[in-house]
Amino acid sequence: MQTKLSVDLKRDLGIISGLSMVVGTVIGSGIFFKQASVLEMAGGQTQGLLAWGLGGIITLAAGLTIAEVGSRIPKAGGLYSYIDGIYGHLMGFLTGWSQVVVYAPAVIASIGGYAAHLTANFLGLDLIWARWIGVGYICFVMGLNLLGNRIAAGFAVLTTAVKMIPIIILIVYGLFFGRVDAVGETVTQVTATPGGSFGMAVLATLFAYDGWVLVANIRDEMKNPKRDLPLSIVFGVLLILLSYLGVTYGVYRVLPAQEIVNLKDNAVFAVVKSAFGLLGGRIMSLIIIISMLGTMNGKMVAFPRMAYNMSKDGLFPNYLKNLSTKSFVPAQATITIALMAILIAAFTDSADLLSNLAIFTIWIFYVLAFIGVFILRYRQKNMQLKIDFKTPLFPITPLIGIFGGTFVVGSTLITDFKGAMASIIMVLVGIPVYYYYSNKQKHMK
Questions:
Q1: Which strand (E) or helix (H) includes residue 401?
Q2: How many domains does the chain have?
Q3: What average pLDDT does the chain have?
Q4: Is 6 inside any structural domain?
Q5: DSSP letters for 56-79
Q6: Is residue 2 part of a domain?
């Protein structure tokens, strides 16, 4: 291993890799498992479709806004670099801290756990083995990422293609073979005691859309980041929006609303079984496992790049900025995050709790980034800058993103105040860490 002085990040990723990163990181298991809960909370099929659509529109507005922020702050590091450039080093550090130290290992361990439980059921193994299967999956994905960009990007493209197969099947089967009125059933037909509200249904879909911003972390490894980064975000989110709406409509066309709610997490499996029998259900399980490994791969690609950039800025331990001389990837950052994920997966059952708490804080930083586009336009108005992408329908588009993000933050505060406070405390713990590294830099000068 050598440092950045000897080797640099390799620019060998194109638009297909960027799109696969966006789609692969977002589409995991949510679209397959959340149909019943979103329908029940929304109160009916029409409202369910509207919830998925509104969540997608908010996400698209967020993506269009971040694409301009990225054009105005053309740095690697993703959200960390954007917040740092808009609000200063402390806020930037807290953004990276909450994602790299808390969210990244927890969400990787959580995805590994879901995939491992499905694998144990698929193979007929005792669930006692699931924990170690999850550890094995984390090691596997870490190994892929240590081999180089092309290997990780190729795996992203492959898993994205695989996970699109059931999505296309569900859409086509629902459209041409479904016999249920997909927009006709109301909440009185779904359940006598509604399980939520339309607002909470939208909130659930926003979490299912989350993860697209991580593509910004690989900016310095794109062949043409000025063109490919905004295109990856915009077209990736559009593809996800159409996929989610299509799957939802397809499921609604095949199964009555009451049956979807009764089946809970198994609604999509029921559609596949009706089309292809028990074999179809097993194939679906296998595809979802592959899908989740693709999502884990996207996280493993993105978060070490953030740690690498924070280390280069003197805000994380120096060894994290070391690159492999063979594969030109931030190998030590990748290994470190993977080891933290393995510890969580092997010795605790709190990965879901940690990742859910961290998602709340990430949305706070999202909102700050959306507001940042107004700040940057004002700050740079007299500068002779070539901006490669500007948010269309400004200021309406960023305002939609701000509204959506504020809704996520506010809803979480109302529904899980203790959890939200725990999230904020986890972020505030980073303040003394920031000042430690900041003072260390001053003494070195």
A1: helix 396-415
A2: 1
A3: 85
A4: no
A5: HHHHHHHHHHHHHHHHHS--SSTH
A6: no
